[in-house]
Amino acid sequence: MKHKHLVRAALLMMSAAVIGGCKAAGTETAASSDTNAQTETADVSDTAYTPVTIQNGDRTVTFTKMPEKVLCANLYAAENMVMLGLGDRVAGRIAPANPAEKPLPELQAEFDKIPQIEKSHENAVALGGDLVIGQVSAFKETAWGSYEQLESKGINCLTITGTIVPDETIEDVYTDIENLGKIFKAEDRAQALIDDIRSQIGEVTEAVSSVQKEERPRVFVLDTFKGNEIYTTSKGLESNLIELAGGINCTRNMDEARWFNTSVETLVEADPDWIIINDYGAQTVEEKKEFLDSNPALSEVTAVKNKNYLVIPLVEVMQDVRAASACRTFAETFHPECFR
Predict the structure, then answer these.
(1) This prediction's pTM
(2) I want to staple 144 with a disulfide (CB 3.0 to 4.6 A). Which of 62, 75, 124, 166 is the partner?
(3) Closest by alpha carbon to 136, among 110, 115, 165?
(4) Could you give the CA distance from residue 146 to residue 206 in angstroms, rounded to a whole number?
């Protein structure tokens, strides 16, 4: 997957180096450009800050000054911030829940500077921040605190768009990046990052555009399992990336919820050509493969017979810049002939 790493490197270089609408042309390192980007953002004083209003699902969030200390309640939120050269504004990030939840390699040095915070309302308040960015699940009393709890203490809340819409698409990723650009007066960098991701997605969709519907593989997502139950996806970003990559999600719209529990029988009836295994949490990839390989009921399923398993870290198909490389990974797996 050499191309995947090139795409990520290009995204990082672009986000760090695009200042005032100009790309670095070899005369400035990404690190120095990133410093300049952060300095430029920091130069916007409160008196010069034009208020920004964001429509965030059913909530309207207004910023009268630029946030100075941000708590990123999800890895993806922190990656988006760092990719936009806003790492110095991130005062804390959620402690990883599992080994697969780690930042992109090219962002590791910047992430090492950001304190890891264990999830609790007390810790969110103790950080002394003025903004929390996270999935909708982050804003519960049992997590970082409800919107009301946090806002009563002067902490603004920005919810990742993909977690508050019925069927998340790549456009929702663009919306989050665009919103950060507006809030932190980094519109040019945000637009450059969006344009680059859009370009990468466009390359994939163009490559598989000639593949007829009957030639598109049927794909089943194995998120987790418990006994005879399988947790899989009905809609959302992973499902939409599969379709952009020239595949068909077998369980598309089987349930009103984005993720739902179904049975082994559903997998048998779907008879997918490929099974995507989401890598995260306490359940290992090896356990998930063993579940597929050892179940007699699945022995005649095409993907199981051919061991057509594609392992993808769950963070690759969540709400940030990784969507472009994940989409290409899917497409190269489903249609290798389109990329030769």
Answers:
(1) 0.86
(2) 124
(3) 165
(4) 43
